[in-house]
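User: Second chain of the day. Same drill as before.
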Amino acid sequence: MKKPFPIVVLSLLFLSAAAVAQEAIPQNSFSVWSRSGGATLERIDDATFSLEQKEGADCCATGTRIPVEKGEVFELSCDARSTGSGGTLSVVLYKGSEALSWSYGGVHLATGDSDFRTYKTKFIIPPEATHIVPRVMGSGACKIQFQDYVLTRVEKLEFLSDSRTLTRENEWLTLSFCPQNASFEVRDKRTNRTWRQDGLGSTYVLSARETADGIVCHCIYGASMMEFEVKIALEKDVPEMVVRVHAEPQALLGGKLAYPAPFCAEENDRIVMPLNEGISYPASEENPGIGYTYFYGGHGLCMAFAGQMEEATQKDGSVVGKSAFMMIFETPDDAGVLLRKDSDKHLLCLAPQWEAQMGKFGYDRCVRYVFFAEGGHVAMAKRYRNYAKETGLCVTFREKVRRNPALKDGIDKLIGAVNVWYFGPNKVERYREMQSLGIKRILASAGGSAEELKTMNEMPNVLTSRYDIYQDAMDPAQFPNLNGIHGDWTSSAWPHDLMLDANGNWRRGWEVAHKDKTKPRIPCGVLCDRQAPPYAVERISKELKEKPFKARFIDTTTASPWRECYHPDHPMTRSESKFWKMKLLELLGKEFNLVCGCETGHDASVPYCDFFEGMMSLGPYRVPDSGRNLTQIWDEAPERVAKFQLGEKYRLPLWELVYHDCTVSYWYWGDYNNKIPSLWDKRDLFNALYGVPPMFLFTPDVWERSKERFVESYRVAQPVSRLTGYEEMTNHRILVPDRTVQQTEFANGVVVTTNFGSQDFTMKDGFVLKGMKSRVEKRR
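Assistant: Same format as last time:
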């Protein structure tokens, strides 16, 4: 037993320098910038401006730079009104020419105000900053009018600190806490790797003390002046550490709380993120194309973890994970991570961030750090699988059938079924032809008439399904302006069951083309998740009396984020949004004995969902407008699609390592196997490697032109999914330094080796695996 460290208490209270006089700095000059180039800035009078953009990404109006010093406290005051997507008042924080934060000390603008509203916020200048630039930021279609933008130096704070470091340890880890910048470092005794945080931040320690198992500190967050408490505890029996953040539940959180700081990377590190199936970036990657990514929806991160690992090449050429850590977000519903460059080596790092719950801090936030001596991304996934079992998320197909035996036939038909979206007539004849050509197992997603469904249900290995949605409700008053009325809109919900934002405005959803093409698209309203289940019960129960579907695909529910609703009759936090979304999905299996599918996927839904359309398709790297132009075939692959979406140097089967025996993963219906012919072979190989079936989407003419290619695709992509659908993926190996040869292994002994490269690869048993080929073995 090691002798415990003595417990130390540090007092680091800041003092306000009374000699500093308040100084107001009005802003009377702004310039405009927009990513898409379409924003305009109009000067209405000496102190009033109007920033407007019809469509596009982010845009902003920026003022003149203001020199600053460490510890200065500024108050930002501005009158503004906003329509459209809203905006943010903030400053850009600079160190010389380097932007430390593009939106520091920000306050979000309400939308829909007819009158100007006064906004105020305070922030502290961190030690590294040299100047700030006022900023008014918008995005999408927006109009922001603002006036009397004033920054006032309120006071200057000096921090009296003890230079000592607080230290705790367990058998595996040594934790050192630095009160000067509220950062900590962790030395892994097994590897001697020290994980050091990027000290750049805006958290200041007021007091700190050691406890028997860790450290407790009282802090103030410089970007919003909110006070909070941090408890850092080393676990006794495992190389893990828990960080818990506490503040008054009613404390206003005017942005994101960025704490703890990110751990800095080394040159051989990779960032690991469960972005849909999963991805890893070299720490030196210049432009990954993503920044802040949330945990509360499938268009963010689909599992509540992220990590960083060191990799090394072995003598045999294989790439193995060495020292690593992962963060498991135990309170993920209002959380995310920011992928950014650190302030030292400018390598990628992961910064945890906590969002407000209904504008306030709300509840304690918790992130668990797990440290590994070896194993890399596989070790991370397996630790998370254990966590998913502990929290009830990991429910296997065998367990789903045990809980509801009525699902046995449907789930067995799902395992290994190609997902077919056939947009054309004579569905029964088409599926019979496909089966005669060797495409035996089919998830028939495109619906059909009552008679067609009865016939399809009698066909061997065909699972009948259809599209459905419980998010979009179109205003009936807009029906005359539309070319058609979607049969799955819940328009009877308008307006009483719509979701309202914090300003009382109904949330906008999918946009539909106006009959007059010169006019803008018309948005649907978003149905409140709390109100959705009764609409589903009514629709599904009525339809099943005529149409005997055996499965159902629910669009958007797990793809779109958990949302807050401020409607007085059905208010909802993000956590409550998640709860009601899951209640909706649970209905399909529990009440109607239907196999359940959903868009993109998220592990909150694993107990209720059986397949996901889009899990294989990494959201940020799909072709443009993939959700609208479903049938468009791309002759040339966009660079980002080829590099990241179908890039073996980046992709990882993280979802399969955790949930392969729980759900079936498909490509997105706007990003299917035959979407980009030049990448079709590669998609098939990923299907084989991951043990998941393909997706085909076609019209009659596409089928007639390419039926032989569809048969070949099925032959390559499908068999492993049937062999392994009920089995855990136990390992994923990278066999060559350029990552072109990879291997997966499943609990029943199936091993798949795939060569994405052009060169032959000789395996240990002498088998020569040709380029762009895969090998399937049963080793036990």
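The chain has a mean pLDDT of 93.

User: Great, on to the next one.
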